[in-house]
Each structure stands twice: as structure tokens, then as C-alpha cells.
Amino acid sequence: MEPPRGVFTSVWNFIRFLPYFIGLLILGVLKGVIVFPIVLIILTVGNCSLILGLWPVHLFYTFYCIWSTKQLGPALKFVISICALVILYLWPFIAIATSIIGGAAYGFLSPVFATFQAVDGRTTNAFYHSIYDGTWDTVKGSLTIVRDLKDVLYHSYFSIMDDWRLQGPSDGKYYEIRVLYIPLALIAVELGLVVDIPMIMLIAACKFPYMLYKGWRRLFHDCIGREGPFLETICVPFAGLAILLWPMAVIAAFFGSILASVPLGAYAGVVVYQECSLWSGLCYIVASLSLYDEYSNDVLDMPEGSCFPRPQYRKKTASRTNSRADSLSRPDSFKNPPSSTNAINVPILELIPLELLDGLFKGCQYHGEIMVSQGVITQKDIEDAKSSKDSGQVISIGLPSYCILHTLIRSAKANSAGILLNDDGTELTSTNRPRDTFSDWFFNPLLIIKDQIKAGNLSDSDEEYIGKLVLLSGDPERLRDLNIESPPESELRRAEFEALARRLRGITKSISRFPTFKRRFESSIKIILEELAKKNGDSRKSEDAGTQSRTLRSKSMFVRMFSEKNRQGKSDQEAQLVDTD
Q1: Is the torsion defined by CA of 279, 283, 285, 288 positive or negative?
Q2: DSSP label at residue 276
């Protein structure tokens, strides 16, 4: 939409649109006032019940895993136990406060934003949607939040702790802490908190008025000139709301800076422990003020630099950089960046983690129905997955791993620089992948596995063997019962396939700990269960039809035999009458 030209035209359009915006805002506030008590009760009661109900179990199981794991030494177990005790003591208070504040904010703001989104021109009946949207959807969203929290506290937590408890030490050596440097690290933590918290609070307070003035100046300038967020008419309400709520955003940024000063100052203890020097921790305390000052200047577009000095607090900076660069081996997909012609001709499609999970679940439904029709996935596998048994990993871990494997094989055959998500050409690369830490953990390892598959030149029998190996977690009995292709004769190649399957299943198991994964995956299981029920129903129908046909055949045979006996009886009677005559 082309913005109007001229100051008077812009002002007139702003004044003419103002009553419309105020009416929508009042409607959204009324909906928020009605909905937010319900959402607040659901989130507060549901989350608090889960948190307080599972807190004793988490307390016991955390210490049980800490002291039973073989990865940690005695001194490190003692230190981690103290830290875990503090965290578990504060966890109920923090979680309950977050549930109350978050429930109130979500219950009030969600109807307000839904009211403005209902008039964006995408809906047919804007009046109906402006009243209805954000009411029942917000209530269902609060129930979904409680469900996801239950999955995290019950499924993800125990999965992580079990892996940590059962995993052995790397290279046969457990991790241990240097006890002599713990007192120096604690002294550095205290000094860091004493210095950084008040100084960062002072720096944030000095820049607080400038942030408020600059934000308002920019928003009013865009409002008058119809630029930035005021370019489109539908964006005007949100931009106007940003003007009203900008002081709250500045206050939130101020308190966020205060909270960020706590880990920033406490990191001085980590520096002391890593560098084995108290002087390095003191240098870091001074340098952290300079780091925060420069970062805040960059955010507020102020002159670069800082008035605080930045002393060197690392003794081995060069060696650390070189070792880090050597430890991160990049596959061919990283060495060959996308060409500029492709970047110009093909628009960059930004992908989010939930879209990637939705694509994975669609693949699970597709391949799951095929496996059910082939008899690879049985009713027992689905029942074990629904009851969260260890034997149910064929569905919960094996099926997503199988889908990811097929995606990587398709990408390797297409010589893709990234990962082809589906057949329509949607490609996940380093330019459009989600920019979050959770995705960073899995994107690079999957690219490495894809390059290994490409270099392995897999045949069709190899692909089938690896697929069933990934799906069935290497169960030899089920692999033998399926009568698939024989494994490779070379022991080295067979070991490579088994290692690839283990890595892929490990990555998938980590992905399954994503908060919304279990809820979304269960809907896929329902679809697979319906397909299995249809298959069993068809087999029962065929069995019933066979039984009926056999019954009909037996009845017809019985009728023929009975009729023959009747005819034989009548002929005998006639013979007797002839003899009598």
C-alpha cells in the first residue's frame, strides 16, 4: 500500500483512523478483562499443581542421578549437589510467580492482539472475528501451555536425567573439580556481584531517559511521515500501541539489565577457575563493565566505545581460539557457501522451529502408514509408545529417525547444500535456518551425517538396511523376521551403518525433548493407529467373509446331503410297496 504524501494528508489520515483504533482497543480490553481471569486460574492452578506435585520426585531423582552417575568425581558431585539444592529450593517460587504473571499477561494481551488481527483483511467476516477471536482460542492456548509443561516436567526431565545417569565417562576418566581454586572463585563471585550490580544499574539509569526519548521520537516521526511500522494501515494500531506501551518497554529493559548483571558478575568465578588466577577474575570484573557499556551503546545507536577500561583477563586467548577452530570440523556444506546468483533469483524463506517439527510429523504420518501396511509397525509398538515403555521406542524414536534419514538421503542424492525438507524444493540452509541455540545443536550434526551418506554411495539395499536399523534400533530378531536385505559383508561398513544409526537416534531423542514435541507427536500416533485399525478391520471383514462363505458352503452341502437322503428314502419306500403288491 502506497503511503499518502504530504504532511496534512498524513495528519488527516491519522486523525481519521484514530477513532477506529480506539474502538478496537476498547473492544480488545473488554475481551481481555473477561478472558484473563479464566486463563489466570487455568495456568496458575494447572502449573502450580504440576510443579508442587512433582517437586518431591524431582528433588529425590536429581540427587539420585547426581550421586549415581559415573561421569563426575566425588568433589564435583558435592558442589553440584549444593547448586542443585539451591536451584530446586528456588524453583517452586520462581515458577509459580512466572505462571501468575505470565498467565495474567497472556490472558489479557492475547485477546487485544487478536482483535486487531481480525481486521487485517484476511478474514471474510471481520465484525464476527473481531468479537470472537482471542476468547476461546486463548482458553485453549492456556490448556496447551499446561499440557506442554507437563510433558517437560515428566517426559523431558526424566529423559535427560536418565541419559546423564546411565552414560559412562568419556575416555574412562570422570570429571573432577580443582578444590583449591573454589575459595578463590567464590571470592571473585562476591566481588563481581558487589561491583557489577550497582555499576550496571547506574549505567542503565543514566541511559534510561535517552532510550525513552529516542524511542518516542522515532515512533512519532514514523507516525507523522507514515514510515516504518506506520507504513501499512493495518500496522497503525500496533504502532500506536507501541507508543503507549513504550515506557513499559523501557522499564522492562532497565530491570532486565539489573537481572543480567547477576550472571555477568558471577562469571568472574568461572574465569578465576579456568585461568587459575584471582587477578584474571579482577580484570574480568572491570572488563565486564566495558562490555555492557559498549553493548548498550550499540543497541541505542550511541557513539562506539566505552569510558571504562578493558584489561586482558585471558592468558591463552590465541590457543583457545585455535583449539576451538580445530575442534569444529566443518563439512562440505559449510565450505561451499550459496552462490550470489541463487541468492538473487531465489527468495530466502525464513523457517521457524515449529514449521520444521510440523514437517517432521507429516513425514512420520506418511512413513508410519506405509510401515503399518507392510506389517513393520505392529499394534504392540503403538501401545508401548502410548504407555511410554522402553520397548515403545520404535514409534517414539525410531519412526522420527527413519523420516530424518530419508530426508538426508533425498538431500544427498539431490546434491543439496543444505537439507531438502520435502519434494517441493523447500531447502533448509545456513541462511534460512532458525536462529536459536536449540537448532544449532542439531543442524550441523545432521549436515555432517548427510555428507557421510553422500560419500558412502549407498545402494538401495544399503538404504533399506539402514532404514530398518534406525527404525527398529538394531533389534536382530525383528530384523531377521522382516526378511530384509542381508547386512553388508564387510564388518567395517556394517559398523559404520550401526554408528550412523546410533547417532541419528541420539539426535532424534534430543529433539523429542522439545516442549511441544510429545503433544504433536501423539496426534501423529492417533492417525497411525487409525490406519492400523482400518487394516485390522479389513482383515476382520475378509475373515468374516471367509467364515460366511464356509458356512454357506457347509449349509449347501448339508442341504444336498439331506435332499439326497430324502430321495433315497422315498425310493426305498416305493420299492417296498412294489414288493408288497
Answers
A1: negative
A2: T
User: Residue 289: CB partners within 8 Å, gap ≥ 6?
Assistant: 195, 196, 199, 200, 203, 306, 308
Q: What is d(CA 18, CA 236) in angstroms, rounded to the nearest whole number?
A: 9
Four-CA torsion 452, 455, 460, 466, nearest 10 degrees = -20
- Per-residue confidence at 476, pLDDT binned at 50, 70, 90? low
Long-range contacts of 73-80 (CB under 8 A, 24+ apart): 73/174, 73/175, 73/176, 73/177, 75/176, 75/177, 75/179, 76/175, 76/176, 76/177, 79/177, 79/182
434: left (phi over 0), alpha (psi -120 to 50) or beta: beta
Cell numbers placing 111: 485477546
Number of DSSP helices (H) and strands (E) in the chain, helices first:
20, 2
Q: Give residue for cell 533469483.
A: 345
Residue 419, classed as helix, strand or coil, is: strand
Q: From CA 49, how far away is CA 105, in angstroms rounded?
A: 20
Query: Torsion angle of alpha carbons 141, 142, 144, 149, nearest 10°?
Result: 140
**Beta strand extents in 299-358 (DSSP E only):** none
Residue type, 50: L
Where does 348-480 show beta strands of DSSP type E? 419-420, 427-428
For residues 307 and 286, the answer to whether their CB atoms sit within 8 Å is no
CA atoms in the 13 A half-sphere facing the CB of 143 = 6
- pLDDT tier, 328 (very low <50, low <70, confident <90, very high otherwise): very low
Q: Among 289, 284, 287, 282, which Cα is nearest to 204's?
A: 289
Quick check: 440 and 511 in contact, CB under 8 A? no
What confidence score (pLDDT) does residue 73 get?
85
Phi, psi of 419 (to 5 degrees): -130, 120
Q: Rounded distance, CA 145 to CA 161, Å?
A: 23
CA distance 509 to 506: 5
**Quick count: other Cβ atoms within 10 Å of Cβ 492?**
8
What is the Cα–Cα distance from 501 to 512, expressed in whole angstroms?
16
Q: How far is CA 487 from CA 132, 376, 483, 500, in A?
A: 59, 18, 11, 14
- Give CA 62 to chain center in angstroms: 23
Q: What is the pLDDT of residues 7-42, one digit of tens each?
A: 566 566 667 667 777 888 888 889 989 998 999 999
Which residue is it, cell 547477576?
Answer: 262
Condensed to tens digits (0 to 9), the pLDDT of residues 99-124 reads 999 999 999 988 988 887 777 667 77
The span from the CA of 419 to the CA of 429, in Å, is 7
Backbone angles phi, psi at 71, to 5 degrees: -85, -20
Q: For 324-443, list the strands marked E by DSSP.
A: 419-420, 427-428
Distance CA 112, CA 135 (A): 10
- pLDDT at residue 199, rounded to an integer: 92
Is the pLDDT reported for residue 277 higher than 50?
yes
Is 204:289 a contact under the CB 8 Å cutoff? no
Higher pLDDT, residue 226 or 374: 374
Taken in order 390, 394, 399, 402, is the CA torsion positive or negative?
positive
Average pLDDT over residues 558-571: 41
pLDDT digits (tens, 9 = 90+) for 286-303: 999 999 988 888 888 888
Q: 488481527: which residue's cell?
A: 117
